[in-house]
Write a structure and sequence with these properties.
LexA/Signal_pep-like_sf; 10 strands; hydrolase; alpha+beta; 166 residues; Umud Fragment, subunit A; single chain; elongated
């Protein structure tokens, strides 16, 4: 009887570990559902919108200008940020705020990206903390899930003029 109970317990633990590993790999490499908070990506993503983030792009270095990504915050590694990629390594980016009279520019260093929120007046982004290491990117947002009225792919950046082509 004890042998039977131990056998069932070890089988249960084995299945738990097995399914836990499968779930970990799915969330780490394939993607997951993310609830976005804060006003920095308005009007594209509102506070409490639910989006799907895929993680394969970051592993295959397929992140492009204009993509919206989830990344670890350079200021607080315990939290994630949701921002749009404005520049990739080697790109020239405008580092000043839109209201600044004199515009300053810089180049994104190797292994980094330049991230900005769509709501330029209410966003803490690369203009504050500088270029973000590519390794902090967790995934690329594919489409919005909730609210259902906005279900689908995300719209283009309202700040398209911030993308510089040199």
């Amino acid at each position: 009887m004890l042998r039977n109970a131990l056998g069932k317990t070890f089988r249960f633990l084995g299945y738990t570990v097995q399914y836990g590993c499968i779930a970990h790999c799915a969330f780490e490499y394939l993607g997951g559902i993310v609830v976005c908070s804060g006003p920095s990506m308005e009007p594209t993503i509102q506070n409490s919108d639910i989006v799907f983030s895929e993680n394969l792009s970051r592993h295959f270095y397929c992140i492009r200008k204009g993509d919206i990504v989830i990344a670890k915050s350079p200021n607080d590694p315990k939290s994630n940020i949701c921002k749009r990629v404005i520049g990739l390594e080697g790109d020239k980016v405008c580092t000043s705020n839109p209201s600044d009279f004199l515009k300053s520019h810089s180049y994104v260093p190797k292994g980094h990206v330049w991230l900005e929120g769509d709501n330029l007046r209410n966003s803490t982004d690369s203009r504050c903390y500088g270029p973000v290491p590519y390794g902090l990117i967790r995934g690329r947002i594919c489409f919005k899930i909730w609210p259902l009225t906005d279900f689908g792919f995300l719209r283009a950046s309202p700040n398209g003029h911030r993308f510089l082509d040199d």
